[in-house]
Amino acid sequence: MKSEANRLRTACFCAPLILAIATSSCGHSDAAPAKVPIETVMQTIHDYGRGHQPLPSPAPSTAGAETEEWYRANVAVLLVEEDFAQLERIAEQNRTERGLFVGGVWKNNNFFNASGDPPHEGEVSDSDYKFHIRRIEKWIAAYPQSAAARITLARAYINYADFARGSGEGDTVSKAQWGLYGERAALAKDALLAAARLKERDPHWYEAMQQVASVEGWDNAHARELLDQAVAFEPGYYHYYREYADYLKPQWYGKHGAIPAFAEEASSRLPEPDGSILYFRIISSVACNCPPEIAELPGVSLPKIKDGYINAQRIYGFSNLNANRFAILAVNLQDKSSARQAFASIASMDPGVWGGPRTFESARVWANSN
Q1: Are residues 208 and 320 in the same domain?
Q2: What are the DSSP calls for 335-358, one per residue?
Q3: pLDDT at 293
């Protein structure tokens, strides 16, 4: 166990979180729980926030010095070491302090992104997921009243569902794959419903349920109702808006132009600079080198994107990820001046934005050309 953790600690300083540990299958069952009516789920969503008093968005001063990469790797190491007590302390700190990273990303979001992914070497395997889920179940057994442990289990099953489906077009996914996809989404939902019966309340519960909604293909009325309940619980948790924007992508459940319209509607309800920042955060959900996302850009407001990016950097500090996102938006919108400025500030290419160095370098050359 310790040797695994030591390898993982080393990996976090050598690469963008390629978490290297050896894993093995534990024969975990994927049997789906009984189907829960959507009315029951929606009632639980409404009940989850009942009596909760929303707070103003966290101040920029809550941003700590640690990087997102270090933080994520540390959470992964703690789970490998089965240091559940420390994971509980971090989760509680996130709920009470509502801390941010430089750039404005919530630490709470990063915590569950880290704990929900199985550490692996090379391509992730089925046995990686099974071993990871067994670890989380040990966490639940040690802390049966832990909301964080059950939300982590939900996130793991959501990722496991995506693993079963694969990344191909829908007509390339087999009936067996679709079956596993649905079963694992149901297991994720079951973990969240169990978490809702606990005393602890965590804002990420809603985001995990949003991911279930996307996997299960909830209708737009229920997906929007979930978003509204989430925002009422924690108004500043902008990750809710990005999840909903993903849901609205035309290749999923939205229509062409739905994301720009949603960004305008949501951001117009906030005063400046919060409105433009939210607009940038929502629109940057389509900031990638992907044809379906690029097709959504003609309906966006470039001045508002610029304002949001500048305001986010001014208030929350420089974010390399935000700079990458703004650069590719500026490139795709043919704003060479803005793209040039963004590239000048980028410390390193973000592969999630560009896909690879060739696209990044080609865009940078264009931005710096006369």
Answers
A1: no
A2: -HHHHHHHHHH-SS--HHHHSSHH
A3: 86
Q: Furthest-apart CA pair in the chain: how many Å?
A: 62
C-alpha 229/C-alpha 209 separation (Å) is: 11
Per-residue pLDDT tens for 292-334? 888 888 889 999 999 999 999 999 999 999 999 999 999 999 9
Kindly report whether the global pTM for this prediction surpasses the value 0.70.
yes
Whole-angstrom distance, CA of residue 98 vs CA of residue 61 = 11
Residues 37 and 173 occupy one common structural domain:
yes
Nearest 5 degrees, angle CA 163-CA 164-CA 169? 90
What one-character DSSP code corresponds to residue 60? G
Q: Flag whether 237 is in a domain.
A: no
* Pair 269, 341 in one domain: yes
Quick one: 68 and 211 in the same domain? yes
Give the sign of the dihedral formed by CA 20, CA 113, CA 287, CA 338. negative
Pair (18, 107) in one structural domain: yes
* Structural domain containing residue 2: 1-217
Q: For residue 113, what are the CA distances in angstroms to 117, 208, 254, 304, 358?
A: 7, 10, 25, 29, 28
Residues 207 and 257 in one domain: no
Q: How many domains does the chain have?
A: 2
> In which band, very low, low, confident or very high, does the pLDDT at 20 lie, cut at 50, 70 and 90?
very low
133 and 272 fall within a common domain: no
Q: What is the pLDDT of residues 169-226, one digit of tens each?
A: 778 889 999 999 999 999 999 999 999 999 999 999 999 999 999 999 999 999 999 9
